[in-house]
Amino acid sequence: MKGKKPIKRWVCSGWLILLGAIGGPVSSMAGSDQLGFTVKVRIELKTCDINDNKTIEVDFGDMIIKNIDGSAYEQPIDYTLNCDDATNSTPLKLRFENNSGANFDADLLRTSEPNLGLRVKQNGNAFAFNDWINFTYGNEPTLTVVPVTRGSEGIDDGEFSASALLTVEYE
After folding, report:
1. Which residues make Cβ contacts (< 8 Å) with residue 15, sequence separation at least 6?
2. CA–CA distance, 96 with 163 (Å, rounded to integer)
3. HEC secondary structure over the chain
4. Which of 28, 70, 88, 164 could bond 138 through an S-S bridge, CB–CB 3.0 to 4.6 Å?
C-alpha cells in the first residue's frame, strides 16, 4: 500500500480555471465590450504518509472454514498516519481502492479465493471499501477487517491474499 500521495486534485482544477480565464478575454476583444473577471485558484501539494510508506499486513492466522461467519476472525488494520502541516482539527478523508470487490458482493474486498471476501469496518461499522470516510487528523478511524464467505459455496483450504490501496486526502 502506498503512503505518500500528493494531493493534485486542486492543481488540475486550478489550471483548467486559469486556462479558461486566459482564453476568455482574448476571444472577447473582437467584440465592442470587454468583460472583467476574477480568478481564484487554490493549489495544495500537501502529502500524507501512511504507515511510513510500508505495506500494511493483516495476518488472520489459521482459520477453520466452517467458523468463517462474517464476525469470527476479525482483525485490526494497524496503520500510522503523518500528514504535512496537519493539526488535530484538519479535515481528511480515506478510502480503500484498486480492488474490484468480491465477485459475490461488491462491498467486500476481493481475495484470491473466489468464495471469500473481506469486509472492512470503520469503528465497528461495515462500509463499502470504495466509499470515503471523513475524519479529522489526530482522530483517525479504527479500521478492522473480517472474512466473509459466499454462504452455501465452499472455499478451498490453504492460504489466500487480497490487496487494496489505502488513500488519504485533505478535504
Report:
1. none
2. 9
3. CCCCCCCCHHHHHHHHHHHHHHHHHHHHCCCCCCCCCCCCCCCCCCCEEEHHHCCCCCCCCCCCHHHCCCCCCCEECCCCEEECCCCCCCEEEEEEECCCCECCECCCEECCCCCEEEEEEECCEECCCCCCEEEECCCCCCEEEEEEECCCCCCCCCCCCCCCEEEEEEC
4. 88
Q: What is the mean pLDDT of residues 8-32?
A: 37
Instruction: Find where cell 500524507 sits.
Output: 48
Q: Which cell is 103 given?
A: 465477485
pLDDT of residue 38: 64
In 122-146, which positions are buried (b, 16+ CB within 10 angstroms) versus exposed (e)? beeeebebeeebebebeeeeebbbb
Reported pTM: 0.71
Q: Where are the domains of the chain?
A: 48-170
Contact at 8 Å (CB) between 102 and 110?
A: yes
pLDDT of 32 over the 50 cut:
yes
